[in-house]
Amino acid sequence: MSSPFQHPVVIGSGSWGSGLASIIARQGQRTALIGRCPEVIAEINQEHRNSKYLPGVDLPEEIIASDDFSICQSADLILFVVPTSSTRETAEKLAALGIPKNTVLLSCAKGIERASGKRMSEIIADSFPENPIAVFSGPNHAEEIARQLPAAATIGCADHEVSQKLQSLFNTKRLRIYTADDVAGIELGGALKNIFAIAAGVASGLQLGDNAIAALATRSLAEMVRLGTALGGKTETFAGLSGVGDLITTCFSEHSRNHRVGVALGKGEKLPQIVSRLGMVAEGVPNTQSIYEAARRVEIRTPIIDVVYGMLYQNIPPIEALNQLFQPSPGEERD
User: Fold this and answer.
1) What is the gyration radius of the CA atoms in the chain, in angstroms?
2) To pair with 131 at 20 to 30 A between CA atoms, which of 57, 65, 211, 279?
3) Does the pLDDT value for residue 210 go beyond 80?
């Protein structure tokens, strides 16, 4: 079967960008991958490896890496796989180049912008108001996707035809793709789970036990639904792959950068040293600020987000922060 897209471009040569490029390229589709690091670009082209971000993974030869954004001018599909803090700058850079109005733009980053409170698809739409825009989310660690381990994900788009084309592109024997039209809910689930993963990691680092972590993850889902629906998502979306599915993965997996940040915090390490050692962006760290502020704007109670914010930005000791969650008298479980 021929690919629904003939000129796909992936912007972002980190682990997730390389993983998504691999999915497309393994179907025999020549795939452009735009990055910034000359060493990473050279290694992908010459050795078909990205040892900095995906060590031990062989990449398809059909991936052609470059730092040349002008490639996007002939693209019929562009994947935004850059940190959330770089999404607006990247979109504006592409808009200045002149991208065709029928080029599909797929957002693969998880978070909201602090200054505006906008989701990534909304930021992209600011620069491309006429282009079809979709989002990709779910419990998808790049390390596993790149190794072709079984997984599932959700693609959200208001245009059903575009959703089907993207589903056809990414659906493989090892990756099951579902579609939905609740773009807001899909994006918000992906953004919120990163913060809860930090909290779960802290509980793990403090060795509070499986019961505490399970309770924390469950209450995180309640908080995700409460805030996510207030910000425009649908309740049922948070019960799906981009909600509870992604939440489970990031709260318990060693692959989760946000979980690893939390574990290190729980063990007494300081945030600047943790982030420096990680070498990659843990989106939950900057997004804790933006989502904490968004919750204040809509006046939604977010106790877990509040304690993570306290640990990251108010120097509250992890054990004190977690005690704030477990010590108060409980209310109704549906609260």
Assistant:
1) 19
2) 65
3) yes
Just list the catalytic residues.
Answer: 193
- How far apart CA 333 and CA 220 sit, in angstroms, is 12
Residue ranges of the alpha helices (H) in 206-283? 210-230, 246-252, 257-266, 271-278
Give CA–CA dist 328/284, Å, rounded.
Answer: 25
- Phi, psi (5° rounding) for residue 164? -65, -40
Can you give the pLDDT at residue 57? 95
Identify the burial level of 2 via C-beta atoms within 10 angstroms of its C-beta, where 0-12 means exposed, 13-18 middle and 19 or more buried: exposed
Q: Which residues pair with 14 in a beta bridge?
A: none
Average pLDDT for 151-164: 96
Residue carrying the six token digits 């639904």: 225
The whole-angstrom separation of Cα 264 and Cα 242 is 26
pTM: 0.93
Which residues make beta-bridge pairs with 64?
32
* Structural domains of the chain ordered from first start: 8-181 (3.40.50.720), 190-326 (1.10.1040.10)
Strand intervals (E) in 35-141: 63-66, 77-80, 104-107, 133-137
Name the residue among 135, 117, 124, 116 with its Cα closest to residue 93. 124
Q: Which of 158, 234, 220, 230 is nearest to 192 (CA)?
A: 220
pLDDT digit string, tens, across residues 104-136: 999 999 999 988 999 999 999 999 999 999 999
Q: Which two tokens stand for residue 236?
A: 């049922």
Mean model confidence pLDDT for the chain: 93
Helix (H, G, I), strand (E, B) or coil at 83: coil
CB count within 10 Å of CB 18 equals: 29
Query: From the CB of residue 159, how many other CB atoms can be counted at a distance below 10 Å?
Result: 14
DSSP H or E segment with residue 45: helix 38-47
As a whole number of angstroms, the distance between CA 158 and CA 135 comes to 10
